[in-house]
Amino acid sequence: MSTETSIAPGPLSHYRKQAKFCWKKMKHFIEDPELLQIKMTVWQTLEKDPVFKRPVELLSTEEMKRRTAIQLNKYCQYNFLAPETANFPYKRKTRFMMTVNEALAVTYPDVSVKHAIGIGLFKNTLTTLGTERHKHILDAAWNNKVLACLALTEVSHGSNTKQMRTSATFDKERQEFVINTPDFESAKCWVGNLGKSCTMAILFAQLHTNGQCHGLHAFIVPIRDPKTLIPYPGITVGDMGEKIGLHGIDNGFILFNNYRIPRENLLNKTADVTPEGDYESSFSDPGRILGAALENLSTGRVGIMQESSNNLICAVTIALRYAAIRKQFAPNGDGSLNKNELPLIEYQLHQWRLFPHLSAATVLRIFVNCFTEDYLSVVEQTTSSDKIQDLSDMVSEIHSLVSSAKPLITWSCRDAVQECREACGGHGFLKASRLGDIRSINDPCVTYEGDNNVLVQQSSNWLLRQWQSLKQDNILSTPLGSCDFLKNHERINKKFGFTSPTQLLSVEAISQLYEYLIIHLIKETEAKQLEVLSKTKCKFTARCETQVYHAAVLSRAYIEYNALKYFWKHISKSHQSLRETLNNLGFLYGLNCLEKHLLYFYQGGYATGPELATFVRENILSLCAKLKPDALGVVDALAPPDFVVDSVLGKSDGKLYENLQNLFFHNPGAMSRPAWWSEIIIPNAPDFKQVKSKL
Amino acid sequence: MSTETSIAPGPLSHYRKQAKFCWKKMKHFIEDPELLQIKMTVWQTLEKDPVFKRPVELLSTEEMKRRTAIQLNKYCQYNFLAPETANFPYKRKTRFMMTVNEALAVTYPDVSVKHAIGIGLFKNTLTTLGTERHKHILDAAWNNKVLACLALTEVSHGSNTKQMRTSATFDKERQEFVINTPDFESAKCWVGNLGKSCTMAILFAQLHTNGQCHGLHAFIVPIRDPKTLIPYPGITVGDMGEKIGLHGIDNGFILFNNYRIPRENLLNKTADVTPEGDYESSFSDPGRILGAALENLSTGRVGIMQESSNNLICAVTIALRYAAIRKQFAPNGDGSLNKNELPLIEYQLHQWRLFPHLSAATVLRIFVNCFTEDYLSVVEQTTSSDKIQDLSDMVSEIHSLVSSAKPLITWSCRDAVQECREACGGHGFLKASRLGDIRSINDPCVTYEGDNNVLVQQSSNWLLRQWQSLKQDNILSTPLGSCDFLKNHERINKKFGFTSPTQLLSVEAISQLYEYLIIHLIKETEAKQLEVLSKTKCKFTARCETQVYHAAVLSRAYIEYNALKYFWKHISKSHQSLRETLNNLGFLYGLNCLEKHLLYFYQGGYATGPELATFVRENILSLCAKLKPDALGVVDALAPPDFVVDSVLGKSDGKLYENLQNLFFHNPGAMSRPAWWSEIIIPNAPDFKQVKSKL
């Protein structure tokens, strides 16, 4: 089986042959061929399976839920990972599992979410928070014998988990926990799989015993009889109804009324309640607890980063292939009927609208690939190492990176998809363009698994802590090096000293700008926080009032720079023939991101004259021009097969109008009179075809 | 009947009573009470009519098309304009018609589009391009006896109308035009109402006679038998299938194969073909032709501006009412279970995310209202005045304003809706939030009726022409005054001279900044165009290569400033009690827009130090703080009734959680087992409820 997308010759050849590199070589540089092979296997299998046939028409939500549930079962049966994988070390195994999920998510996002929540996250949570006494449940999960859900969010609380009010009170008499939902506002909601299909929940509830509350803990809670799917008594469970997208997922809500579960249903790796009702915390193995905590927080977010970067790739693939075929206006501007109209990609404005997103797609894809390796290494180490302090530092830094990277990538995807949709003009509004679907798939990613605007505060808080520790104790805890440049803060260039635009086209120059920017923002944020603190005496207020123009931008700049650093490190290993294009993509990404922050350089006194802004902007435009001949080759290297991109505008054959014709002529009922025609007939309407003489 | 939205007391009272003004007074200042009354009549009528009942569940596209078609017929029957309106002067009558459409569009956008295309635009085009010989068709249209469509766009050409290739060739023998579609690429497409329902088309085709092509002309073309809805022979007509939104509209495509229509079907006000086949241009009444041309180009765009500004209002209404109720985290930050959590609106970050959109909603709404008056006055004058030159100048200026205003408002709505969706967190992803629907309603507006990115070039071209005429001949043709400040270009302040942030909080200061910016961009664009021109000798290329960072920003700055000028002029007539709030909204809008352009001030040498950026940003944050107590009052003044906003998150009663509970508990099938439950049962799944002893 080939690991290569096949590229049919056709109208795109004109631009393809301009590329300075072999797209296959580029593809295998961007993505590990072994992982690509795994994806290809998934794609080729699903493409052949009628259960996974994509509908042309809009289905009812009920039908989408039904199909997704059936597809999930079928997907589980495939067992895409080879049997020997089970014995692989943690990192390799998880990477393979993540890759299978990536392949699924980019084609059937609803099935992927159902699987991730109902099986992946369930197994994960049981493994990391459960103990031997939950092994039979874990075994059932591994054998796909149970579909679960994870109930955390409540109707009136999401980000602030401490305020959640679903309670589990220990009843010593009966050796059970009694679960209650005090009111509708504390009903669990947005729980994927809970609406219609799951039979088990991992429920997060406030643990009460002996009159004391010990905070949120995880419990195994049976929801429905697996033989009938009828909910157990004591539960009010339902489906939340229509959403903006992800219609195949049955998001549910649940209220408990004195619902009882055995004492043993508490996931007790970190804490337990004894039969006597005593609460016992069991920090016997801090490394593992650290890893468990990290995994529970971050694995979902790393998954989103992967999925979102794939959606970003699909969006630019569609818009750029369209831009290479779609022609508009002729350079002579006389509008005469000649064949010399220019493809959209020839226009500077169009390049500038799309190429920065192409560069983001490339840089962020490579960043996600490389960062995932680091992430899994850290998790793996937490399960084996004894150096708790180092690990703790590493876990904090990983958390800081994930907390800013998930927002960066999901927002970058959001912006790219919208621009791509607009860049495809009217045809971009066709459902078959797939840009609408990509938009609604990515849309929830900006607010779930940690709201982006809340999440980024974790990174800036971490950076400020690093900064304070560096200043006070000369200690910088950045084992992954994401902010190691802070230690050189006194030596960093604080004045713009470039004399020509091209001097900015280097790793060193872009690094210098980012390092100045990040340090400037750290200092400004710290100063502003101290100022607010001195007025209000409230740390919380101080943090809240330093987000805008300060901490929020700091997190963004920090992660953009780190994405670039991962990218640069990876491309240093690239074949010479790929280097120039990759460099240009990195420069464009960096300068285009920096362009949004340039005011800070003027505010900070780094620049005063026009040169900084002018040089950056000139470079962005000249990089667009340089990338034009390579753009379609980069797209071919990034793009998954046509079956995956699934867009009438973005097929690799470039036969845009033939594909549109096929779509228009064959969509169901396209040329037939609607069944309801007689309901809309206008009584006594004149027939102007017949009254020719009167005209 | 009341012209006031009723405001139920409830949880929003806390913020409502902080407002410095009476929301009803503000409402009647923003919107003419007479027009508001018209809207209320439409809304109250439709709300009561079961034909217009909104479905809770997602309907099939087919069903949405059926309902929309039926609703359109019902809507036409209502004849919302009082009979005496027919005799009103053009301006007043059209304003009333526009108002009825606004009311319809914000509640039933699909019905509004079908009506606008199939009846409104049809009548308009017949009136402006047709003659006496088409009067019987126009009469039928006025009596709602015909549903039409307007076929202009072709599969491979949209913006570049000159390249369209559908042809109408005169056959002298039979005194007919023979219509042909050379190939699929020249099939007409995206034609609203054409897919399933219309019986007539106004077709734009290249007119050929005696072997010569005379360019695009409009023809009346019968499409379907009105008694059977079966298309006539010689036509291949179909529905384009699924779209991202506006599912109720049957967008169609059509190909003609030697399809014949009588000679008289040419709309012949500006040109005709004689029975002998001679082409005759008839510019007998240039004023009227000018008006006709203007109307055909611009009325649709003005309608979009109105509709988009209403959608923007609905979006901020939803997000701000949600922000006033939804609480998150407590200032003490200790997470203890107290009741002191802060509503989102208390957070500076949240204010900064939403208040600029609130200010845009207010400023742009007032701008659209006032501009519509000017627009209709100009159209009215073109039908009566003889001073062609003045009129021509006025028409050009109107065109320049519309060409930048439609993009400004539709893009502002796009950005606001997305931010509002995110600011409502997970609940914003509910279909019942309505933010998804608003997004997909506004989405096509950025690319249809003139693609925004193409359209804005009209404004910058006009500005450059004004500038050149001013420099060369000392003539500035700006009868509406939209660029009258250009004549003072030598006296304009070119150096930042403010010494404290509050100095920027004035009409004069913001005007000074905008005038500097616009003149700077004009000069830079002109210089860059000359530079490219001297290299390429191609005006077309020169214009294309000066869009990014130049002409495109110029158009944007020009229209932002003009929107503000309309706003300022209007608020100068406001009651004293409203003034402070309105001023703050205007300042926030102006400074927040300028903030995006500040780099140009550094590039142009207006500013060098940090003050400009720092002052502007400090003001934005302090204006947010100042507007907090007024925000909910402004929302009440802007918002249409709950029935129109139609959001579970944005109801005026503020009973967020009760409304959510009602939604969750009563959505169809919420708590029932799905019909397909047995299809997803996992064979031999263990029942963990029953094996309690084993846990």
Automatic annotation (TrEMBL), chains A, B:
<dbReference type="InterPro" id="IPR006091">
    <property type="entry name" value="Acyl-CoA_Oxase/DH_mid-dom"/>
</dbReference>
<dbReference type="GO" id="GO:0033540">
    <property type="term" value="P:fatty acid beta-oxidation using acyl-CoA oxidase"/>
</dbReference>
<feature type="binding site">
    <location>
        <position position="153"/>
    </location>
    <ligand>
        <name>FAD</name>
    </ligand>
</feature>
<dbReference type="InterPro" id="IPR012258">
    <property type="entry name" value="Acyl-CoA_oxidase"/>
</dbReference>
<dbReference type="InterPro" id="IPR055060">
    <property type="entry name" value="ACOX_C_alpha1"/>
</dbReference>
<keyword id="KW-0274">FAD</keyword>
<protein>
    <recommendedName>
        <fullName>Acyl-coenzyme A oxidase</fullName>
    </recommendedName>
</protein>
<dbReference type="InterPro" id="IPR009100">
    <property type="entry name" value="AcylCoA_DH/oxidase_NM_dom_sf"/>
</dbReference>
<dbReference type="GO" id="GO:0005504">
    <property type="term" value="F:fatty acid binding"/>
</dbReference>
<dbReference type="GO" id="GO:0005777">
    <property type="term" value="C:peroxisome"/>
</dbReference>
<keyword id="KW-0560">Oxidoreductase</keyword>
<keyword id="KW-0443">Lipid metabolism</keyword>
<dbReference type="GO" id="GO:0055088">
    <property type="term" value="P:lipid homeostasis"/>
</dbReference>
<feature type="active site" description="Proton acceptor">
    <location>
        <position position="449"/>
    </location>
</feature>
<comment type="similarity">
    <text>Belongs to the acyl-CoA oxidase family.</text>
</comment>
<dbReference type="GO" id="GO:0016402">
    <property type="term" value="F:pristanoyl-CoA oxidase activity"/>
</dbReference>
<dbReference type="GO" id="GO:0071949">
    <property type="term" value="F:FAD binding"/>
</dbReference>
<dbReference type="InterPro" id="IPR002655">
    <property type="entry name" value="Acyl-CoA_oxidase_C"/>
</dbReference>
<keyword id="KW-0276">Fatty acid metabolism</keyword>
<keyword id="KW-0576">Peroxisome</keyword>
<dbReference type="InterPro" id="IPR046373">
    <property type="entry name" value="Acyl-CoA_Oxase/DH_mid-dom_sf"/>
</dbReference>
<keyword id="KW-0285">Flavoprotein</keyword>
<feature type="domain" description="Acyl-CoA oxidase/dehydrogenase middle">
    <location>
        <begin position="149"/>
        <end position="258"/>
    </location>
</feature>
<dbReference type="Pfam" id="PF22924">
    <property type="entry name" value="ACOX_C_alpha1"/>
</dbReference>
<feature type="domain" description="Acyl-CoA oxidase C-alpha1">
    <location>
        <begin position="297"/>
        <end position="464"/>
    </location>
</feature>
<dbReference type="InterPro" id="IPR036250">
    <property type="entry name" value="AcylCo_DH-like_C"/>
</dbReference>
<feature type="domain" description="Acyl-CoA oxidase C-terminal">
    <location>
        <begin position="507"/>
        <end position="683"/>
    </location>
</feature>
<dbReference type="Pfam" id="PF02770">
    <property type="entry name" value="Acyl-CoA_dh_M"/>
</dbReference>
<feature type="binding site">
    <location>
        <position position="192"/>
    </location>
    <ligand>
        <name>FAD</name>
    </ligand>
</feature>
<dbReference type="Pfam" id="PF01756">
    <property type="entry name" value="ACOX"/>
</dbReference>
